[in-house]
Amino acid sequence: MRLIFILPVAVFVALAVAFGWQLVSGKDPSELPSALVGQPMPAFDLPPVEEGRAPVSSTSVKGEPALVNFFASWCVPCRAEHPILLDLAKSGVAPIYGIDYKDKIDDGRKWLDELGNPFTAVGSDLDGRVGINFGVYGVPETYVIDADGIVRHRHVGPLMAKDVEKVILPLLERLKKP
Amino acid sequence: MKRLCLAFLLILSAAPAFAFTADDPMDDPAQEARARELARELRCVVCQNQSIFDSNADLARDLRVLVRERIAAGDTDAEAKQYIVDRYGDFVLLKPPFKVSTYALWLGPVVIFLLGAAAVYFYHRRRRTDPEVATLSAEERRRLDKLLLDDS
Description:
Chain A contains six helices and seven strands, in the order H-E-E-H-E-H-E-H-E-H-E-E-H. By secondary structure, chain A is of the alpha/beta class. Chain B is elongated, with a radius of gyration of 31 Å.
């Protein structure tokens, strides 16, 4: 009979702990898991954003671990992320491929001229189809691709220094080891 | 002021009409009906609590166009849906599939109901057989009658 009285309290405490933990964990519940992690990167072949460059295709991404970054000149958080990408590019830890999502090539060019270009190559995804194939639902998004072209990680939203330090760099390090 | 409110209310009531009509319908009405039905079953991943049918988000519009394209290309409803799920995961299905990772979701309410029903059943059964509600013994009956008589 005692148990009957303790049970509601126990259930309440358990729920409170579960909710509280979720609340302080800092995890964004609206952030979706990627359906592509562990799958081959979707094939693409995009016109270059930079003048006089070759088209950017998924085959050029393979061969070594790399980052694929979706951005757009109309995207405000991308501006916040940009210095981080420049730092990453300078460190030379992995090539970064840019995909200019639903953006005019001219605007993309202006963006790179103004803020600097961290990308090994930049393709223009004007109609957003490559974005849909990757499962992009809001720029910026960054994908970590391994040497075999398999998607290993997706980061939604602007990359911050702590994301790079705690997630991206250790993952690249692991992927580089054979 | 009244007029302004009225105008505002009218605009609000017309809001649902904006969504799907914004893009080109398919030529075949039967295919268009299928595309719309599918669009109602797919979640807009930007707004997350609307279907892509209802949402005005850019991505929702792109996905509506994509659904129409898949249907025009001869996909069945299931194939068209799978095409989107392959890219965005099960989360885009407003009606989640029944599989190992969703057992708790689908069966949870039933399990909780059964637990509750069992608790109610056992509680009442115990009460019925509770010795404290058994009839009085002859000795107790005599004492009780005595008390009642004393009282009056």
